[in-house]
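Exercise 7b. Backbone tokens:
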């Protein structure tokens, strides 16, 4: 069972970024380094994953988001 996670106002994220098979949103208003970090931490905490696959495109923000996620 998932526990309710209380996030500070700074760390709140726009839940509309979560799609059926991926995460999409406008950078930096909907997705930024803090968002990517929080998603990565939650994913590992929830799944216990040791490795994940990260896909990205050629946008300038992709490397920053990747580094924050992992």
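Sequence design result:
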């Amino acid at each position: 069972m998932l526990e309710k996670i209380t996030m500070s106002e700074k760390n709140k994220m726009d839940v509309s970024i979560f799609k059926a098979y991926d995460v999409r949103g406008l950078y930096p208003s909907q997705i930024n380094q803090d968002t990517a970090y929080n998603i990565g931490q939650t994913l590992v905490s929830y799944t216990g994953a040791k490795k994940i696959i990260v896909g990205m495109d050629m946008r300038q923000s992709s490397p920053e988001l990747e580094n924050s996620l992992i």
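Instructor comment: The helical segments are 33-47, 62-69. The chain has a mean pLDDT of 87.
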